[in-house]
Amino acid sequence: MRRRDFIKVFGGAAATWPVAAPAQQAERMRRIGVMMGYAGTDPAAQAQVAALRQGLQKLGWEDGRNIRIDVRFPGGDAGVARAIIMELMSLAPDVLVTNTNLVTAAVQAEVRTIPIIFISVGDPVGAGFVGNEARPNGNLTGFANWEPSMSGKWLLLLQEVAPQIERIGFLVHPETPGNFAFFKFAEALTPAPKVKLVALGVRDADEIEPALAAFAANGNGGIIVVPHAVTITNRDLIVALAARLRLPAIYPWAFYAEAGGLISYGFETVDQFQRGAEYVDRILRGAKPADLPVQYPTKFQLVVNLKTAKTLGLAIPEAFLLRADKVIE
Question: Which residue range(s) make up the domain with 106?
Answer without folding.
Answer: 30-145+268-291
